[in-house]
């Protein structure tokens, strides 16, 4: 009998991603529900039992970036791209051949600031991740030095498209720009300065 | 028989806040769990049943800012301060007599970026809300024009203290500054330009 090697990455994703997606739907319903206190109490009991079962074995403190045995990174706890983090939409960042990046993401009730609109800080969170993704070079991680976000118009909740690209390198610094847009045009623009630790430029 | 008037604000808070808190614990356990697939499947069934029950009556699209009959605002769906939004810690913003604001908040696994550290975009989200809170005048809402965030050092997950204050008014514009700090010092600083709609300056 042969044993097929299990790909840790695919296995972890297959087991935990559907649960995370269910928790995202629970988050949305928790915000928007108008059911009465008896039903709320019933749901709270279900949620507490779920948390108790999951807590039977926990990694300490936070997920971090875990690696498969063959060195593949799993940044699954990340607040905006994490496959296993229910507060992340999650953002899926696509990379063009020239190193620029883009994403399409659907943002619902959990990401609200002004009524019906995306929280300005969530726009900043998405742009921080997008600009960082394009500034990052393989094996030369870049850290955000400064992020400037300009709000041109309130962004309605719903589908949002984001883009970012590097405009200049200067020693250890990389300058990137990006924006968020939807059917109404460009809503938010950003500039970022990213710094590679000295000696690795 | 007298009937005691029920305070909608307090009632809504008493019914929905404990559920939201339980969902926050579920989020943390979902990220950090290492239980096997059978347990995960069991938990997913509990979560799906909870979401189904809550979905029997939902407000459409998003929470918005709902008001009590006597006009008290409930920004409970807000992504960072919302009492009913499980993705919000929630941030509780305190106001000093001079109009400056501060907060103390515990940030766990759900807010991670680099391993063990706060996501830079979450720092931006907190600072956007803090600076906006101090720039806001009663009955004269101010909208974020520009937010600039400077990252001085990576911020470890855990307890974070934030502060913000207005430094200058200039026509319809209000300039505010703020920072996040912890036991290791000041980690992130921010400046914001807030704009009041014309005619209301």
Assign the structural class of chain A, choosing from mainly alpha, mainly beta, alpha/beta, alpha+beta, or little secondary structure: alpha+beta
Write out the strand line-up for the largest beta sheet of chain A, numbering strands in chain order.
Answer: 3-4-6-7-8-5
Q: Any low-confidence stretches of chain A, pLDDT <50, length ≥5?
A: none
Briefly note the CATH topology name of the largest domain in chain A. Thiol Ester Dehydrase, Chain A
Query: Sheet bearing the most strands of chain A, described?
Result: 6 strands, antiparallel
Helix content of chain A: 25-40%
What's the count of strands of chain A? 8
- The CATH architecture of the largest domain in chain A can be named as Roll
Strand content of chain A: 25-35%
**What is the rounded Rg of chain A?**
20 Å
The largest contact between protein chains, plus residue counts on each side, is: A-B, 85 and 85 residues
Task: List the quaternary state of the chains.
Answer: homodimer
Shape of chain A: globular
What is the CATH C level class of the largest domain in chain A, in words? Alpha Beta
The CATH superfamily of the largest domain in chain A is identified as Hotdog Thioesterase
What distance lies between the first and last C-alpha atoms of chain A, to the nearest angstrom?
51 Å
Counting H and I runs of at least 4 residues, what is the number of helices of chain A?
3
Number of domains of chain A: 2
Question: pLDDT average of chain A, as an integer?
Answer: 92
SSE order of chain A? HHEEEEHEEEE
